[in-house]
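Bump. Still looking for alpha-L-fucosidase structure tokens.
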Amino acid sequence: MFHLFRSLVPALLVSPLLMAADEGTKGADLTKSKGDTANSETPDLKGWVRRTDPAMEKWRDNRFGCFIHFGTYSILGGQWNGKEVPGAAEWIKVGGRIPSAEYDKLVKQFTLENFDAKKWAADIRRMGAKYVIITTKHHDGFCLWDSKLTDYDIGSSPTKHAVLKELADAVRAEGMDMYFYYSIIDWHHPDYRAADPKTPEDQAAYARYLEFMKGQLKELLTDFGDIKGLWFDGRWDASYKNHPDIGKGLEAWLRELKPGIVLGDRVRAYDSFADYNSGYERKLPKTQPLLDWEACMTIPENSWGYHKTWSGVGRKTPKTLLEMLVRSAAMSGNFVLNIGPKGDGSFNEKDVERMEPIGVWMKSNGASIYGTEGLALTLPAGTYATRKDDKVFIHAFQWPETDKLPVKGLPGKIKSCTLMTKDGAKSIRFEGETLLDLPLTAPDVLDSVFTLEIEK
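Sorry for the wait, here they are.
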């Protein structure tokens, strides 16, 4: 397969992202991560086949995941030389125009004195997530494991923690699934190229980089136990985007290496989808997509990595985040909430403030999310429906102004109806497709859930 890669490689004379970090940026604004949202609203379904195997069904049933962006950039927290750097914290090398020689010194500061993988996993499980995705290598190229293929990794840092191994073991011990994020882009590797190659030298360099990437992916899938899938990022550079056969070849090799692996569409070069559409970054679809999909969401406006000041507007509340989760499930999609741990390895208190109330709600109402699919009903604004077997769950984020709630378009007659309250499930009267005699106020300040049993 390496020979196939050599025949496909494109490359760049000099990566513009590396130039931005070392020499300053001209033209495009690289201080903001715009994300990868291609094809999210108008996908080309040519050649896409919906998987029905147990691994993919488990991915669907999970519905709620947790993303973790963590690396040496977490030490800086969005600041350089005492000043805040605009844009996403994990892009600070570019946004802050930090010379590589200076940025690389962060490895020696990566002590992780407050890292506790078991606590991370327990906190995430209490939030209600069923799977975890962590950045094994972001665009800066730093590897969160001791790779045999580079010294720019955690093995060169002072910490004694084997972060990926400890976290993967802890996540599985909590009953969750482990996924790994991997960046195709690598600002640190000398052989990485961003634009199409025009010379034999650049083509050869990019071929070497693809071999390096493939070797690292093999490490990730063989050295850390049962990793359920990979979450790729950074396919927008021309070296990858303009040559879809590279992504197709990589996907085929990964499926041979690990049968049943779950792969998002970013392994592909925008030409088609793999197992699901991951293009909903910091947004949700307007209507239910035609294929499997996943949305990933930040808590602050636009930073995945830890940011000390959370600059900008759009800091989301627990209710806003929970409504995004419910809306996703109501459109048969998955929702992944991102957190950015601090450079010392502890969780950001502002993240925890949002995780905890979501977890309390999920403990009582998780059955209305896990293993469900969306159901298109005619409902009042701020109300959504999910379904599993003979049960329909009505989520009321906006409580009715009267004591009635119409639920039009049900797949059958209502057999029974209950409303979850602080004292448990309470029976609710109904006539036809209208719920009656509702309490004056919502029993849950986040989302009040009705469970309708439908006659078969």
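Residues 135 and 271 are 24 Å apart (CA to CA).

Edit: fixed formatting.
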